[in-house]
Amino acid sequence: MLFRSPPTHALLGYLLAELPDFEARRDRLLVFGAGLFPDVDGLTVLGGAEFYQRYHHVLLHNVAGAVGYATLAALLATRRWTVFGLALVGYHLHLLCDFLGSAGPDGSGWSIPYLVPFSFHDFYNAHQWGLASWQNVTVTIAAILVSIHLATRRGRTLLEFVSTRVDGEVVKVFRRRWPWGGAPTAAKLKAEAPPDRADPE
């Protein structure tokens, strides 16, 4: 379902990565990844339902995971301090989204043991929104619309991390269909222009 957590986390991570208009694709990828990385601990499902219930939202949904990811991202980045700061923000944005709106269909919610490994105290929101709640749907739709607008201006979407060719085709569609995109920046037009070739003799 579109409005479940991973797509929303991905969209918010993409928007955060676009804030500084990084020149390096790798810097954008590292910030984008901060919005998704906490859910790597969801792989605990491979150990069975009980293992998943015990360790999902524990292994990486905490301050140690946030600082660890941001530090690693900074070491790999071109603009290190900017990436470090935005990766921290993106990681915490993921935790905040889970804290506010990750309740299951039966009303059961997820706690956030934020202080691990210093403390295993759980922070729990008894009023968590459901994954398909109107609040989450609204956030996701808003993120989609802003993402389309940015794509028409910047000439890229989050699909650039999968395939630049597909990304380019999607941008073309958005620029034809999106009524408020306006003209792309001069730098983007220059970057997208084919190289000059001499006229054939």
Topology, pairings included?
Layout: H1 5-17, H2 25-34, H3 49-55, H4 63-76, H5 80-101, H6 134-154, H7 164-177, H8 186-192
Helix pairs in contact: 1-2, 1-5, 1-6, 2-4, 2-5, 4-5, 6-7
Shape: globular
Fraction of helical residues: 40-55%
Query: What percent of residues are in strands?
Result: under 5%
Q: Treating each run of at least 4 consecutive H or I residues as one helix, how many helices?
A: 8
First and last CA, distance? 56 Å
Low-confidence spans: pLDDT under 50, at least 5 residues? 194-201
Oligomer category: single chain
Backbone CA Rg: 19 Å
Question: Strand-and-helix sequence, N→C?
Answer: HHHHHHHH
Sheet with most strands: none
Counting DSSP E segments of at least 2 residues, the number of strands comes to 0
On the 0 to 100 scale, the average pLDDT is 88
Secondary structure class reads mainly alpha
Can you describe what's shown?
This protein is mostly helical and 201 residues long. α1 (5-17) packs parallel to α6 (134-154), α2 (25-34) packs antiparallel against α4 and α2 (25-34) packs parallel to α5. The protein has helices spanning 5-17, 25-34, 49-55, 63-76, 80-101, 134-154, 164-177, 186-192. The termini are far apart. The chain has eight helices and no strands. The model is unreliable at 194-201 (pLDDT under 50).
